[in-house]
Amino acid sequence: MIEPIPEYTRHTLKALNVFINNDFEEYYYNSDTHYSGNNELTEDNLNISELSKKTTGYVGVKGGLSGLMFMDKNKLKKHKFQYTSVDMSRHCYWIELGMFLKITNWLLYGTEPDIIWNTALPSRLFYKIVIEAKYARR
């Protein structure tokens, strides 16, 4: 019989698991603005129609690509996303604007995106992408 894992150790293990799932990158934020959840490099909070008027940049999404793919469609239409023109390609939870717009058009209007998925995807996300592609082709 073993002792239960202490609360502190459980939280440490959960944090380590998140760190590993984020490809060993942390989410950078300004501690002064942590209450808002905004990254310190965020220039604006914009909805999809406002983002579609931009030509370059990165969009911050809670949960990254998985968070975007599993977001409720009604919330997706209204949600204000973090936006920056700074290169955030090496930071987790930031999606390049062009890819973000392709994915949101796919999720909202069924416009199948021309995306080369050149990254490792969790099985749950891979399954969601396959299911969305299947329904988009109908």
Question: What does the model show?
Answer:
The protein is an alpha+beta fold and 138 residues long. The protein is built from 6 helices and 4 strands. Strands 1-3-2-4 form a 4-stranded antiparallel β-sheet. The chain is globular, with a radius of gyration of 17 Å. The N and C termini lie far apart (55 Å). 14% of the residues are buried. The model is unreliable at 28-35 (pLDDT under 50).
Brief descriptors of the model:
single chain, 138 residues, alpha+beta, 4-stranded antiparallel sheet, 4 strands, 9% strand, globular
Shape category: globular
Biggest sheet layout: 4 strands, antiparallel
- The average pLDDT value, as a whole number, equals 80
Structural class category = alpha+beta
Task: Please summarize what this structure is.
The chain has 6 helices and 4 strands, in the order αβαβααββαα. It has 138 residues and is of the alpha+beta class.
Explain the layout of strands and helices:
Blueprint: H1 7-21, E1 44-46, H2 48-51, E2 58-60, H3 64-69, H4 73-78, E3 81-84, E4 94-96, H5 97-109, H6 123-136
Antiparallel strand pairs: 1-3, 2-3, 2-4
